[in-house]
Amino acid sequence: MESATIVLTLFASMLGAAIGSFLNVVGWRVPRGESIFSPSSRCTSCGKAIEWFDNIPVISWVILKGKCRSCGAGFSFRYALVELVTALLFAGAMLRNGPDLLFVRDAVFISLLVCAVLTDLDHWIILDTVSIGGTIAGIAFSLVPGGIGLLTSTLTAASAFTLFLIIRIVSTIILKKKAISTTAPEGHEEEEDEFQGGMGWGDIKLAAMIGAFLGPTSTIVALFSAFVAGAVFGVIVLARGRDRSVPVPFGPFMALGAVLALFAGPVIWGLYWQTGKRSK
Ligand SMILES: [Zn+2]
Q1: Ligand 1 centroid from CA 51, angstroms
Q2: Rounded to the nearest whole angstrom, what is the distance from the C-alpha of residue 49 to the centroid of ligand 1?
Q3: Which among 237, 240, 267 has a CA at the least distance from the CA of 253?
Q4: Can you tell me the distance from the alpha carbon of 249 to that of 230, in angstroms, rounded to the nearest whole number?
Q5: Half-sphere exposure of 266 toward its Cβ, with a 13 Å CA cutoff?
Q6: CA distance 8 to 17
Q7: Is 118 exposed, middle or buried (0-12, 13-18, 19+ CB in 10 A)?
Q8: Spacing, Cα 68 to ligand 1 middle (Å)
Q9: Buried b (16+ CB within 10 A) or exposed e, 13-38
Q10: What whole-number distance in Å separates Cα of residue 35 and Cα of residue 39?
Q11: Is 67 helix (H, G, I), strand (E, B) or coil?
Q12: Lowest mean pLDDT among 74-78, 89-93, 183-187
């Protein structure tokens, strides 16, 4: 590997770690209605401000062994993991594109996906800034040299949105039928509209965002992978005896599929059709 490539990849991973750190803050504060920029990072246990030298992505977590310097309260390993994963994905995007606008596009896409995962895991929401704003960003990035093009981007976003909308409508009808046959418990009638363990509006808008960035082939790979991953997870969870009525957010599976498709979409697509031909 050329030394310039190594330096650029290192730079990309440091940028990714820093943005992962910022996304941790966004994922914690925005759903709680707090400002992203002030106050500075604080320990959620003792409230003491975290000094900059204790706030270096991944490294500080390792040095402090995941504990607050003042009160010793544990910081979830998840914070460091988010920083690490974002760093690795940014490095991958740099290796894939080199230092051009396509790297910026992939970096923005990755950041949006990480943000969607964090808020969906904790709060069951995907911010409109991420899904709708992300769709607009994806369409804008389709215009950069080497991008997928305005028409492709817009049409894929619209198709993915429509597909997920149809899935929602169909599954709502099926679940409603089930609900009637089991009769909802007293006082829970108002929850009927809240979709349990299925496609929420956040997921539908996220599908549009993924479509806008990836274009048709990779979007099919992404969404298909999401359903496969979700199904596998469901089987494992059921086998381990988890309560079936506890819903699992679907956004993280979509993000997983999207990342897979971003880096290997055309390869997976090619493999699928090759295997298909061979089995005939
Ligand atoms: Zn503390």
Answers
A1: 12
A2: 9
A3: 237
A4: 9
A5: 2
A6: 14
A7: buried
A8: 5
A9: bbbbbbbbbbbbbbbbebbeeeeeee
A10: 8
A11: strand
A12: 183-187
39 vs 50, 64, 132, CA distance in Å? 11, 22, 27
Query: Mind listing the pLDDT tens digit for each residue in 176-200?
Result: 776 655 544 554 444 444 444 467 8
C-alpha of residue 37 to centroid of ligand 1, in Å = 20
pLDDT digits (tens, 9 = 90+) for 196-246: 446 789 999 999 999 999 999 999 999 999 999 999 988 888 788 767 666
Q: What is the pTM of this model?
A: 0.89
Rounded to the nearest angstrom, the distance between the alpha carbon of 118 and the centre of ligand 1 is 22
Q: How far is the CA of 53 from the centre of ligand 1 (A)?
A: 15
DSSP state of 54: G
24 C-alpha to center of ligand 1: Å? 17
- C-alpha 48 to ligand 1 mean position (Å): 6
DSSP classification of residue 43: -
Calculate how far, in angstroms, residue 71's C-alpha sits from the geometric centre of ligand 1: 4
**What residue spans define the domains of the chain?**
1-99, 125-280
> 110 CA to middle of ligand 1, Å?
30
Enumerate residues with CB within 5 Å of ligand 1 (an ion): 43, 45-46, 68, 70-71, 73
Residues 6 or more apart whose Cβ sits within 8 Å of residue 208: 131, 135, 157, 158, 160, 161
Q: How far is the CA of 25 from the centre of ligand 1 (A)?
A: 16
CB 98 within 8 A of CB 8: yes
Using CA atoms, how far apart are residues 5 and 11, in angstroms rounded to an integer?
10
Q: How far is the CA of 58 from the centre of ligand 1 (A)?
A: 18
